[in-house]
C-alpha cells in the first residue's frame, strides 16, 4: 500500500476545504494530532507500529468535517457525528485504500458501536465503528487530547475521561485501556507543527 505524504494530504485538504478558515481549523488540528501521536510513538514499546501509516491517519482523520460546512461557512453541529463516515466517502472517491479510509470512520470517541448508535438515535448506519489495529487505536487516542473548539484547546487525560463519562462508565474504561496501551502525552515535550502541549498533565 502506498501511503500519501504530508504534502499530498495537505493538497487534499485544500481541495476539500470550503474556506480558508475551515482549512486552517481542520488541517491544523490534524497536524497537532500527528504531533501528539509522534510523541507517543517515541516509546520503545511502540517501535513496531508503522509511523508513516499513523502520520497519514492523523492527517486524514477529520477531512470529512469539510462536508459539514454550509454555503455561509457555518458548521452543521447536529450532524457532526457523521464526519467520520463523510471522510471515509471522500477518501473512497479519491481512490484511497480501505486501510486509510478507516482512520476517518473509526476514530470517533473511543469507538462507536451498533448499540451506541441505536440507543442514542445517532444519524449513522447501525454498525460497529471501532478501531481495530494498533495504528487505528493510536490515531483515535491522540485525537482525544485536542479539540477544534474556538479557541482550540488541549485536554489532559483526566479531562477527557471526565468528558467521556457522560456516555457511560464503559467508555471511561475503554479510554483507560488506551492510556495503558499508549501512555500519556508529555506535557512538556514538543509537538511538531504545534508548539508544546499546553495543559496536558499526568494523572
Notes on the structure:
With 203 residues, this protein is mainly alpha-helical. It has a single domain (6-196), classed as Hypothetical protein af1432 (Orthogonal Bundle). It is 50% helix and 2% strand. A two-stranded antiparallel sheet has the order 1-2. Strand 1 and strand 2 (195-196) form a beta hairpin. Helix 3 crosses helix 5 (98-105) and helix 3 (51-60) packs across helix 7. The longest helix is centred in the first third of the chain and has 22 residues, at 20-41. The model is unreliable at 192-203 (pLDDT under 50).
Summarize the structure.
With 203 residues, this protein is mainly alpha-helical. It has helices at residues 6-16, 20-41, 51-60, 83-93, 98-105, 114-120, 134-143, 157-164, 169-182; strands at 190-191, 195-196.
In whole angstroms, how far apart are the ends?
Answer: 38 Å
The parts where pLDDT drops under 50 for at least 5 residues are 192-203
How many domains make up the 3D coordinates?
Answer: 1
| Integer-rounded radius of gyration | 16 Å
Number of helices: 9
Strand order of the largest sheet: 1-2
Output the CATH topology: Hypothetical protein af1432
Bin the helical content: 40-55%
Structural class: mainly alpha
The major β-sheet equals: 2 strands, antiparallel
Task: Please write the CATH class name.
Answer: Mainly Alpha
The shape, in one word, is: globular
Task: Note the run of SSEs as H and E.
Answer: HHHHHHHHHEE
How much strand content do the residues show? under 5%
List how many beta strands DSSP finds: 2
Overall average residue pLDDT:
91
CATH architecture: Orthogonal Bundle
Amino acid at each position: 500500500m502506498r501511503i500519501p505524504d504530508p504534502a499530498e494530504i495537505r493538497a487534499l485538504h485544500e481541495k476539500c476545504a470550503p474556506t480558508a478558515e475551515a482549512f486552517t481549523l481542520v488541517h491544523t488540528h490534524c497536524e497537532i494530532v500527528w504531533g501528539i501521536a509522534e510523541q507517543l510513538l517515541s516509546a520503545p514499546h511502540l517501535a513496531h507500529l508503522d509511523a508513516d501509516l499513523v502520520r497519514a491517519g492523523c492527517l486524514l482523520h477529520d477531512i470529512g468535517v469539510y462536508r459539514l460546512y454550509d454555503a455561509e461557512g457555518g458548521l452543521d453541529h447536529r450532524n457532526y457525528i457523521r464526519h467520520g463516515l463523510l471522510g471515509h466517502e471522500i477518501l473512497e472517491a479519491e481512490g484511497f485504500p480501505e486501510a486509510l479510509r478507516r482512520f476517518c470512520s473509526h476514530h470517533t470517541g473511543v469507538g462507536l458501536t451498533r448499540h451506541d448508535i441505536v440507543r442514542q438515535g445517532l444519524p449513522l448506519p447501525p454498525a460497529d465503528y471501532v478501531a481495530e489495529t494498533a495504528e487505528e487505536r493510536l490515531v483515535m487516542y491522540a485525537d482525544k487530547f485536542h479539540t477544534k473548539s474556538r479557541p482550540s484547546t488541549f485536554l489532559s487525560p483526566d479531562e477527557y475521561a471526565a468528558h467521556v463519562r457522560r456516555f457511560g462508565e464503559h467508555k471511561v474504561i475503554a479510554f483507560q485501556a488506551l492510556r495503558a496501551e499508549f501512555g500519556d502525552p508529555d506535557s512538556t515535550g514538543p509537538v511538531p507543527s504545534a508548539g508544546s502541549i499546553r495543559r496536558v498533565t499526568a494523572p
